[in-house]
Amino acid sequence: MFTQAFPATSLGASLARRFALVQLDDWGIRPGAPLRDTVALLVAELAANAARHGRVPGRNFELRLLYEHETAVVRIEVSDTHLRRPDPSAVSMADLDADGGRGLALVEAVAHRWGVDDRTGPGKTVWAETEPVGGS
């Protein structure tokens, strides 16, 4: 398991992705592995959302990664202190000319499953899991 707090900024989101890649190296998930690319994308999108939409001044967001070696499932959890929760049932691709709005649609497309849970204290945890080896 890996857990680290990051500042709720674009730099913090970038650092979260970089730290996640280092953790994947420690778990033996090397560059070029499809699982690595999937996790990198999911961390990037969830961390960017926490920094952009979940930001509360003076508060960090937290990244947690869990790896189930037998099934090769990685669970990504990003927790922030903002009370607004994304609605998984309302995810859709944004206008193709828009500057943003595709993050959770990408998560929906790439993750095996994802959701939003309450957390202890204020805020929520947005999580995503990768596809198990051999599919579902």
In short, what is this structure?
The protein has 136 residues and is an alpha+beta fold. It has helices at residues 10-26, 34-52, 103-110; strands spanning 2-7, 60-68, 73-80, 113-118, 124-129.
Low-confidence stretches: 95-99
CATH class designation: Alpha Beta
**What is the total number of structural domains?**
1
Based on CA atoms alone, the radius of gyration comes out at: 14 Å
The secondary-structure element order is EHHEEHEE
User: What is the typical, i.e. mean, pLDDT?
Assistant: 88
Task: Name the descriptors.
5-stranded antiparallel sheet, 32% helix, alpha+beta, Heat Shock Protein 90
Descriptive overview:
This protein has helices spanning 10-26, 34-52, 103-110; strands at 2-7, 60-68, 73-80, 113-118, 124-129. The chain has three helices and five strands, in the order E-H-H-E-E-H-E-E. Strands 1-2-3-5-4 form a five-stranded antiparallel sheet, with helices on one face. It is globular, with a radius of gyration of 14 Å. The model is unreliable at 95-99 (pLDDT under 50). By secondary structure, the chain is of the alpha+beta class. It has a single domain (2-130), classed as Histidine kinase-like ATPase, C-terminal domain (Heat Shock Protein 90). Helix 2 (34-52) packs antiparallel against helix 3. Residues 16-128 form the Histidine kinase/HSP90-like ATPase domain. It holds the Pfam family HATPase_c_2.
